[in-house]
User: What shape does this take?
Amino acid sequence: MDILVVGGHGKIALRLLRLLAARGHHARGLIRKPEQAAELQTVGAVPVLGDLEAEPSLETHVKGADAVVFAAGAGPGSGPERKQTVDLGGAVKLTDAAVALGVRRYLMISSIGADRARSATGAMRPYLQAKAEADRYLMASGLDYTILRPGMLTDDPGTGRVRLSTELGGRAPVPRDDVAAVLAEMVEAPNTIGVVAELFTGDTPVPEAVRALEPPGPR
Ligand SMILES: NC(=O)c1ccc[n+]([C@@H]2O[C@H](COP(=O)([O-])OP(=O)(O)OC[C@H]3O[C@@H](n4cnc5c(N)ncnc54)[C@H](OP(=O)(O)O)[C@@H]3O)[C@@H](O)[C@H]2O)c1
Assistant: This one.
């Protein structure tokens, strides 16, 4: 498959691109800084230059993809404005481009707490509101989406074992390695279409946890 990972130099994205390339996919990563290209090539991915905020449409980059992954983020040091332009605006632009080009498969890295953004406080509130709105937009798009809501991300080595559940409201950490492993599995798993799931470190091997997800009833 040709898979475009947006936010291609992100910590999860680089791990995911490496896994996708190793599985024989044509793994492309959208980056806005040319100096990041070499690192993508090192993991076996193809760098694509583009800016989620500056460009009005992402269609030129999405063209030719079989699936897209939204792995970008404004980051913890950014203010509410960039939550709107990256976490919400970037995800919406990617949805619009996928719809326009008929690229049906869309994997979203969302966040725990997006289902209860209104009760969040401080800097988390605009972040979770942006994530929640981006998720709703994708869910209403008619695309074959999977929304993954990881808990607090860590750079600990992955264990390959997770807790993946459509029951929302959990709170626990998860290594970025394991988030990437789950996404690499999900992209090829039709049973995850239409699923919104939380992800934490856990006891179940990643392929088994992904296989166990139940697709929802008729939408
Ligand atoms: N931190 C947590 O505990 C947590 C929990 C749940 C979910 N999440 C979500 O998980 C996702 C991935 O996390 P991560 O740690 O892998 O992220 P990360 O390392 O911060 O990567 C985010 C990437 O987005 C890119 N980006 C920002 N603005 C852009 C733009 N205008 N155009 C193109 N790319 C742009 C950044 O590129 P530059 O290098 O150019 O800035 C960066 O490579 C994010 O959506 C985050 O919100 C985080």
The domain at 2-211 is CATH 3.40.50.720 (Rossmann fold).
